[in-house]
Design goal:
Layout: E1 19-22, H1 39-54, E2 57-62, E3 73-77, H2 84-87, H3 90-93, E4 100-105, H4 114-120, E5 124-126, H5 132-143, E6 147-150, H6 168-176, E7 180-186, E8 205-211, H7 221-247, H8 268-295, H9 304-310
Parallel strand pairs: 1-2, 2-8, 3-6, 3-7, 4-5, 4-6
Antiparallel strand pairs: 7-8
Helix pairs in contact: 5-6, 6-7
Length: 311
């Protein structure tokens, strides 16, 4: 008897138990992206199953209809946990099965498992030492009608507040002529965040993913980035208040809660100092690796066909 893999639900409107969409599930025809064999028909359904069956998440998805049903856009997502690149793409899946191509550090592609998966989803590798090529690629693809996901804070926010926002997302949106749309996630840091071990199988957890109104972008990228920061900060305040109404109140001193709300996470100021120390350490380590490589170059590897000819 032949072995067959279990079928994953392919309907992009599929809502697992515990998922809700507000104000309503968009009645959007399937986008051609939804039929991509790997990302659209395997990864997205599997992600929903994982979120519900393994992480036992209650998920509220707000305003997926604000994502364009066709054409490009830049989705600027706040960053509090390692699962954000999964959670941040779920609202688009309920807008005609659209797919988000995330910009992510190129080191992920070095992983033998994650690398091929990232390529299969057509995500965009970013070299933090020289990001011009990735910005150019993201701009081209946004202009061609793709949804580009970017974390404008660059790294995870230890304070769980909105950090300083880089202007890359604003520049990409302006140059591509597409909307810049903030996406706010709250609850991701309870599952897996920087400096803590992941919780692979939770008893229960709660998550809100909220798509906000587009932000005005102009040729002044710095001003546009500031508007993005303000919109994300205001959206985060609103989402956190709603989260507390739904699932709170919470005890004082929770490590996933910002100090401004009575939690024990570091303040934004303290987290910024730590981020700068980490960035300096990464620069020094990169310089050391490059110096070591220059001092001890690897011998040139001959192609296999040349080795065979010598036999």
């Amino acid at each position: 008897m032949a072995f067959t893999l279990p079928k994953l639900p392919r309907d992009h409107f599929w809502l697992p138990k515990g998922f809700t969409v507000t104000p309503a599930l968009p009645d959007t025809p399937p986008h051609p992206e939804s039929r991509e064999p790997f990302y659209g028909r395997i990864i997205i359904p599997f992600a929903k199953l994982w979120m519900r069956r393994m992480q036992h998440l209650n998920v509220e998805i707000q305003h997926p209809e604000r994502i364009p049903a066709t054409g490009g856009a830049v989705l600027a997502v706040n960053h509090t946990g390692y699962w954000d690149f999964v959670f941040g793409g779920i609202p688009a899946a309920y807008q005609g099965g659209r797919l988000v191509r995330f910009m992510a550090k190129k080191e992920i592609w070095d992983n033998p498992v994650a690398g091929p998966a990232m390529s299969g989803c057509k995500h965009i590798p970013v070299d933090r030492a020289d990001g011009a090529a990735s910005v150019k690629e993201a701009t081209r693809r946004a202009a061609d009608g793709e949804l580009i996901g970017i974390f404008p804070e660059a790294t995870i926010s230890r304070s769980f507040e909105i950090k300083e926002v880089k202007d890359g997302a604003a520049r990409i949106a302006h140059e591509a002529g597409v909307p810049l749309i903030p996406v706010v996630i709250w609850g991701s840091q309870r599952i897996w965040t920087k400096g803590r071990k992941p919780i692979w199988r939770l008893k229960s957890a709660d998550l809100i993913v909220s798509v906000r109104e587009p932000v005005e972008v102009t040729e002044d990228a710095k001003a546009s980035a500031q508007r993005l920061h303000d919109a994300m900060a205001a959206g985060l305040d609103e989402v956190r208040a709603h989260y507390d109404e739904l699932y709170g109140p919470f005890p004082e001193g929770e490590n996933w809660m910002p100090v401004s709300l009575g939690g024990s996470a570091p303040s934004l100021e303290d987290a910024t100092v730590k981020d700068r120390e980490d960035a300096q350490k990464r620069r020094e380590e990169r310089a050391a690796r490059e110096a070591e490589k220059a001092a001890n170059p690897e011998p040139e590897k001959k192609p296999l066909w040349k080795k065979l000819l010598k036999r």
